C-alpha cells in the first residue's frame, strides 16, 4: 500500500491554488470600497489625497515594469487612454463619490455598470453573441440600479451616478485592454506611472495641501492598502488565478466582489440598507452572477437571503433601541 509523504500531502493542486488566489483577489477588491470610504469619511482625507497615496506608492514600485518591451510613443499613447479609464481620473471620480453615497452602493454599482456596458460593447464591437443568460443578467442589474437609486429617496443619487460613471470608465478600460492585448502587470505599471505624473502635477497646484496634518498611521495604512494591496497584490493574485483556472472560471469568482463589499459595509460601517435598497442590491448581485454564469441552487439562495435579512433587521433594532451616547 502506497503511503503519501507529508510533503506531498501538503502540496495544493493547481485548481485549489487558483481558487485561493481568485478568492483573495475578490476579497481585496471587495474590501476596497469600505477602506476608501473610511479614508474619505472617517480619516478626513480628500479624494485627491487618497489618489495621491495610491499612485505615490504603486507608481515607484511598478516603475521598472512600465518599460518592458521598450515602449514607443504609440504604446504610451495607448497606456494614457487606459489610464483615463482605470487610473488617476477613475480613482479620483470614484473616491469622490464615497462622500455622497454608501460604500455598499459603490461596491455593487461599479461592477454592475461595468458588466452591462462591457457585454453591450462586446456585442457591437467584437460581435459576441448576446445569450439569453447575459440579457437576463444585464436586465436584473439595470432593475437593481433603479431600485438602489430610489431606495434612499434620492439622497445618494449624486454619488450613485458617479459610481455608474466609474463603471463606464472601467468598462472602457477593459475594452481597450481587449483591443490592445498586453501583459497585465505592464498595463498596471504604465497606468500607475502616468497617474503618478498627474498626481504630481496636481500636488504642485496645491491639491495635496493639508496631507501633512493627517496622522502617520492613517497615511501608512491607506498608502499600503491603496498602493500595494489593491493596486498590485490583487492584480498579481488575479493573474495567478487566470493562469491556474482560465479566464472564465476566474471571472466567475469576481462575482463575489459586490457580496464582499456589501457584507463588509454592513458589519464594518454599519450601513443598513432600506428594503428597497436591499432589493436593488440583491438584484444587481444576482444579475452579475447570472451574467457570469454562476450557478446556485434555490436553497442556497434562500439561505443567503434569509441570513442577510435577519442581520439587517437585528442591526436596525439595535440602532433603534440604543440611541447614540
List keywords for this structure.
325 residues; mainly alpha; 77% helix; disordered C terminus
Structure commentary:
By secondary structure, the chain is an all-alpha fold. The protein has one domain. The chain has helices spanning 6-9, 14-42, 47-62, 73-86, 88-97, 103-125, 132-151, 157-179, 184-204, 216-245, 247-253, 257-268, 275-291, 298-321. The chain is globular and about 50 Å long. The model is unreliable at 4-9 and 321-325 (pLDDT under 50).
List the uncertain runs: 4-9, 321-325
Radius of gyration: 21 Å
User: What kind of oligomer do you see?
Assistant: single chain
- Terminal CA distance: 67 Å
Please state roughly what percent of the residues sit in beta strands, choosing from under 5%, 5-15%, 15-25%, 25-35%, 35-45% or over 45%: under 5%
Mean pLDDT: 85
Architecture blueprint of SSEs:
Layout: H1 6-9, H2 14-42, H3 47-62, H4 73-86, H5 88-97, H6 103-125, H7 132-151, H8 157-179, H9 184-204, H10 216-245, H11 247-253, H12 257-268, H13 275-291, H14 298-321
Question: Briefly, what is this?
Answer:
The protein is an all-alpha fold and 325 residues long. It has 14 helices and no strands. Helix 3 runs antiparallel to helix 5, helix 4 packs antiparallel against helix 8 and helix 10 runs antiparallel to helix 11.
